[in-house]
Amino acid sequence: MTVSVHSSLPSSLPADSGALPRLLGDSGNSSDSSDSETDGLSVWPRSARPEAGGDVSVGGVSLAEAADRFGTPVYVLDEQEVRERCRAYRAAFPEADVVYAAKAFLCRAMAHWVREEGLGLDVCSAGELALAVTTGFPPGKIVLHGNAKSPDDLRTALRLGVGVIVVDSASEIARLAAITPADTRQQVMVRVVPGIAAGGHAKVRTGTDDQKFGLSLTDGSAQHAVARILDQPHLELVGLHCHIGSQIGSVKPYVAAVRRLIGLLARIRDQHGVVLPRLNIGGGHAIAYRPGEASLDVDALADRVRAELADGCARARLPVPRLMLEPGRAIAGPAGVAIYHVLAVKRTGEHTFVAVDGGMSDNPRPALYGVRYAPRLIGRHSSAPPRTVTVVGRHCEAGDVLADEVQLPGDVRPGDLLAVPAAGAYHLSMASGYNLVGRPPVVAVSGGIARVLVRRESLDDMSRRDVGL
User: Fold this and answer.
1) CB neighbours (10 Å) of residue 152?
2) Is position 396 annotated as part of the catalytic site?
3) How confident is the model at residue 25 (pLDDT cuts 50, 70, 90)?
4) Percent of the chain with pLDDT over 90
5) 75 secondary structure, DSSP code
6) What is the CA angle 412-343-463, rounded to 5?
7) Are 383 and 453 in contact (CB under 8 A)?
8) Which of the two residues, 23 and 226, has the higher pLDDT score?
9) What is the DSSP string of 262-326?
10) Model confidence band, residue 205 (pLDDT cutoffs 50, 70, 90)
């Protein structure tokens, strides 16, 4: 297969490419996932195909050829997978505002794709905001988050005309009110902590009172923030927001959160005579990282949330607010594959370590959250029986582990290529400069064409920041 490289963005794809693919709430590559399960590609992009000689193609592009052309480590991102996941969310929530969470992965092309597919954007800093707006993303469709927004974050949001700012603390209300121009009203939401524990790891559970985000419903902080905002002439409270965690595989916590937020909407109506028109339920939708794992059924989420909103608002005698949600990982994660070269295979006692040319500087998630991946040998066929190995990185940390206790062919050796699926979210966005290795490039694939979206970070890039003695 030929790999072509283009530096420009593609022309717009049609808004409707035919029948809606089965994207949300599955862990397979198609409506009939038996072949992908057999090939071990169930958590790969839908376009992934086994090729001769043990190779795999994604978006019509050979991954072995991509590794040869672009070097390793490299992230390969399936553009069509991203676009189809955006469309599937819009189909599941046609009456809602779907806002892509940029923290999962953001570059100019990603902002371009998201905008073309009709989604808004959720950013967490002036840097993410500026990148999006200079790409042409409408600032009015951007939501600004953050538990500790800097003065520069807020000033940039006001200057660029960001649509909604999600208030996360009492001090932020005064800070924002003080710098909002007198002839404007900035739309804001209050981030509410509903007291619900949900998420795939303790470090990503954000719906309880024992973490840094939001204002508590239990202790009255959220109600106090609402009253303070309503007293500010230059701030317009347009709704409530909550984000209860990440990698959530059940619909129930979202339904419980909606129920509690409807109760708060009713109290605000009763106490202040104000009916808020919008409700943001955040994101955190689980994806499958390994074959057999489940992902959140987003169609079921849409049905249950829609029913809870209708029933709850009817009981409270409230109009149904316009819904907003913020998927990030569920759009970007399954679209990405990380490719590494094996540098060494070492047997220590009863353990076999397969060391690759990347590691925690390009994927810190296993070290942070104990995330488990399913790497695959690509680029050659092996008939060797599998053995249990631990795939480790090249960095000076014993915790630099990419995939613990996984099955790889018993003859895995230096020079081999390993591909790690479900690598589109929270990899490059969380990458670091540890050991000055340099962050990998991002290569988009679609229709047999590959092009660089984000180039590899070079030693020269890193050296320029060091101003010397």
Assistant:
1) 11
2) yes
3) low
4) 78
5) E
6) 155
7) no
8) 226
9) HHHHHHHHHHH-----EEE----B---SSTT-----HHHHHHHHHHHHHHHHHHHT-PPPEEEE-
10) very low
3-state helix, strand, coil in the chain (%, to 5): 30, 25, 45
Structure tokens at 414: 């230096």
Please identify which of the residues 86, 242, 313, 396 carries the catalytic annotation: 396
Question: pLDDT tens for residues 151-173?
Answer: 999 999 999 999 999 999 989 99
pLDDT the model gives residue 247: 87
Encode 97-115 in three state secondary structure. Answer: EEEEECCCCCCHHHHHHHH
pLDDT of residue 216 exceeding 90, the answer is no
Which of 56, 35, 2 is closest to 419 using CA atoms? 56
Tokens representing residue 250 in the block: 């059940």
Strands 442-446 and 351-356: unpaired
Cβ atoms of 25 and 299 closer than 8 Å:
yes
Q: How far apart are CA 245 and CA 58, in angstroms?
A: 31
Under a CB-based contact definition with an 8 Å cutoff, are residues 442 and 454 in contact?
yes
Average pLDDT, the chain: 89
